[in-house]
Amino acid sequence: MDLYDVMRTTGAVRRFTDDPLPDDVLERILDNARFAPSGGNRQGVRVIVLRDRSTREALGALCVTGARRYIAQQRNGEGPWNPLQPMQVTGEQLAATDVPDELSTPLLTSAVVLVVCVDLAVVAAFDQDLDRIGMVSGASIYPFVWNVLLAARNEGFGGVLTTMAVAEETRVKALLRIPADFAVAAVLPLGRPQHQVSRLTRRPVSEFATREAFDGESL
Hints:
The chain has about 220 residues and is an alpha+beta fold. The chain has eight helices and four strands. The protein has a domain at about 5-50 and about 100-165 and about 170-205: NADH Oxidase, CATH 3.40.109.10. The longest helix is centred in the last third of the chain and has 13 residues, at about 140-155. Its EC number is 1.6.99.3.
């Protein structure tokens, strides 16, 4: 496929067919995704490939904590898990929030689930002393994650970048025997899409790009 076509049609896929994603195709996806940039070219990525259903069910159960708060805050008119706006949902409201079973469906119906981790011993977090949520170290892992999704699209497969499980990272690490110095960055269900997106909708460039300053003239 043309690169720009891949970029414009790689949407979030949560509904999959029963088609398998063979190991040789998965290896090809990862083989191409590995050329993503990382800080200092240290390549601190680690991918855990999950096919066993019981492990995937356990991982899905660990997504409930993050999802419950997300749903509760959304229903309360809040920005879910927003780092600037403290949660207004009460403990009672949170406990009473049901999480639909279909939340974990992509983890069970996809052909494979990838858990993508990054070695914190090799990232450069230049924003670690700033008074805000850290973002910069993600530059050493999320380009790889996006490359996986682009490569999957090129192979006729699809997936979605999920992070709900990270709210229970300690338990995820115990489940998958992830070392302490590694962070869980993403969980990617991959498979053959039931319906392939042919066109994505995004804001025009003029709405998010400005010249010379944040409040400068639109590009």
